[in-house]
Amino acid sequence: MTITINGKETAIPENPDRTIDSLLEELDVSQRLYVTVELNGEILDRTEYETAPVNEGDVIEFLYFMGGGA
Amino acid sequence: MNEQQIERYSRHIILKEVGGKGQQKLFDGRVLIIGAGGLGAPIALYLAAAGVGTIGIADADDVDLSNLQRQVIHFTPDIGKPKVESAKEKMIAINPDVNVITYKEWVSAENINRIIADYDFVIDGTDNFAAKFLINDACVLAGKPYSHGGILQFDGQTLTVKPGESACYRCLFPEPPPKDAVPTCSQAGVIGVLPGVLGTIQATEAIKFLLGKGELLTNRLLTYNALRMKFREIPIKRRATCPLCGDHPTITEVKDELDAMTVCDLKES
């Protein structure tokens, strides 16, 4: 199946049980424990990661902490 | 405006979006820059050059040799000098019309409301999450528009917040990451030109806000990667569950995010 991650079309194996939480682990996303996930335009609450399914064509944004400035 | 001022701002004045009236709005404008470092340097220089009448600049730090690779408002002979003094000298040298107010202090829950009170627009040029969340909270609670900016290594992101109208930083990130969970520039490095790109965008937002022209960077997070030379815009929305500006806020006054303070912050404060 194909999903869009941070603007990039990405092919991932079919897996009907995949959730946002398992996707984060599967892709070894950096800042995995703190990253904010936007799914199809809606920012998810962290509590939703374990239940939100990942579907064909989903548009996902990982929003990372950037604390620098000096 | 006197003849010299008309000459100085002539490239602004011929823009139909600015004109003499717009230039007057910039003169009457009051912008606070928190952080006189990488982001603060281009912000302070451009706002002074543009003729923003009153510019506040807050930072408790002194200029260090390791700052000079990117903090272009500070020069080699400034090492050891308070950053706000070094910055003020350059701003006045560029434009003697500008009134620069310095705050040689770190922002905290105790002083931030007082510091931001007199300004129309605030710019976050700080380098730690404790300050970034504090600035967001104080500006949203005070209804003060502000520009968020963050950088790391080759990446940057920026967002303008119009409290009550657009998504705030906590709509994106409800709380700071645990201390030391996300590296800082001093630990992970930063390419020197990066804050120039992001800071200049933040200064642009302040100028557009004062002019009342164009569209602010609200409800969209602009991200930049210097290595791939890519800008991306991610649409975002206010979140009903935001702890600060949501339907049932749990944050109703400014507080210090002690868990997000680094050892360095604690030592300095």
What's this, in brief?
The complex is a heterodimer of chains A (about 70) and B (about 270). Chain A is mostly beta strands and about 70 residues long.
Structure description:
The complex is a heterodimer of chains A (70) and B (269). Chain A is built from one helix and five strands. Chain A has 70 residues and is mainly beta. Chain A has a single domain, classed as Beta-grasp domain (Ubiquitin-like (UB roll), Roll). Chain A has a five-stranded mixed sheet with strand order 2-1-5-3-4, with no helix packed on it. In chain A, a hairpin with a 2-residue loop joins strand 3 and strand 4. Chain A is globular, with a radius of gyration of 12 Å. The mean pLDDT of chain A is 95. Chain B is α/β, with parallel strands linked by helices and 269 residues long. Chain B has one domain: NAD(P)-binding Rossmann-like Domain (Rossmann fold, 3-Layer(aba) Sandwich), CATH 3.40.50.720. In chain B, strands 3-2-1-4-5-6-7-8 form an eight-stranded mixed sheet, with helices on both faces. In chain B, strand 7 and strand 8 form a beta hairpin. The radius of gyration of chain B is 18 Å and the shape is globular. Chains A and B meet through strand 4 of A and strand 5, strand 6 and strand 8 of B.
